[in-house]
Design a protein that fits this description.
This is RloB domain-containing protein. The chain has about 280 residues and is of the alpha/beta class. The protein is built from 12 helices and 6 strands. It has one domain.
């Protein structure tokens, strides 16, 4: 895999959690153990032999507001849990068990913009500490909602809409294969309201065992290359059939991880080693 073209550079590093002042109510960019970011400390006397531990950069924080709750969370679960990667953390928000329509997503996002903060799992984050905001939606039957939202988007609205047509399974498909006009030809003839359901069922027919979220995360580069080739928008900025903006989010993920000691490449290598070890134990 060629990782050389992924060159995302994070802005000024934020203060490390090791310098936090106990008791300060600033729960932003916390570590997984719940450590808080610091305010400037008061002056104290220290031994001349004291050496401050080497600081580490806080992870890039990405807020993902998703129309779908389960599939999208599974696609991003490695970054939500930060298991095996540390340079990027996803703050994921949706509506449990029912998801969100684009209008509802827009309402929540604009509320976050006005408040300049958001709350996830009882934890508050200030918007100025969020490095990137993505809003994930399927086209499905929401074409009218999406086109209206995009047409009225303010210039200072930093939210990046990631839209998949007909649904996010098209991204999973591109992580495996690259022949949608052949593999998915039957979908194009269906009404918009039936396309997502059919694509989900096709997964098991095209790929033995169906689409796998772990496989997709380990094959982001293939997904980027394949989906970008077929990406096209109509006159209202909505992706056409078999197009998905997920390649933008995937590029950001790979670029961010690769600038931190080639973390994505190392993650893939480690997963391959784990599979080899399991095979040897059988």
């Amino acid at each position: 895999m060629d990782f050389s073209k992924f060159t995302y550079a994070k802005g000024e590093p934020k203060q490390d959690a090791e310098d936090a002042v106990p008791g300060e109510n600033l729960p932003l960019h916390e570590s997984e153990e719940g450590g808080e970011e610091a305010k400037p400390a008061t002056e104290v006397n220290v031994s001349p032999d004291y050496r401050k531990p080497e600081s580490t950069l806080s992870p890039v924080l990405v807020f993902v507001l998703s129309g779908g709750e389960t599939r999208e969370r599974n696609i991003l679960k490695v970054l939500i849990r930060q298991k095996g990667v540390h340079a990027l953390r996803v703050l994921f928000l949706s509506e449990q068990n029912q998801g969100l329509q684009p209008y509802q997503m827009q309402e929540k996002w604009q509320s976050v913009r006005r408040a300049k903060q958001l709350e996830i799992d009882g934890q508050t984050y200030h918007l100025y500490d969020i490095d990137k905001v993505f809003l994930l939606s399927d086209v499905d039957e929401f074409y009218g909602q999406l086109s209206e939202i995009l047409s009225s988007k303010a210039d200072d609205d930093s939210g990046c809409w990631i839209i998949s047509n007909p649904c996010i399974e098209i991204w999973l498909y591109y992580c495996y294969r690259n022949e949608p006009k052949t593999d998915l030809a039957c979908i194009e003839k269906l009404p918009e309201s039936e396309r997502s359901k059919r694509l989900k069922s096709l997964g098991n027919e095209i790929i033995k065992g169906g689409f796998n979220f772990d496989y997709a995360f380990e094959h982001l580069l293939e997904g980027i290359e394949h989906s970008e080739k077929y990406y096209e928008e109509d006159e209202k900025g909505i992706p056409v059939i078999f197009a998905t903006g997920m390649y933008r989010l995937a590029k950001f993920i790979v670029e961010t991880l690769e600038t931190n000691g080639n973390e994505y490449e190392e993650y893939i290598r480690q997963k391959q080693l784990e599979r080899e070890q399991r095979r040897k134990m059988k």
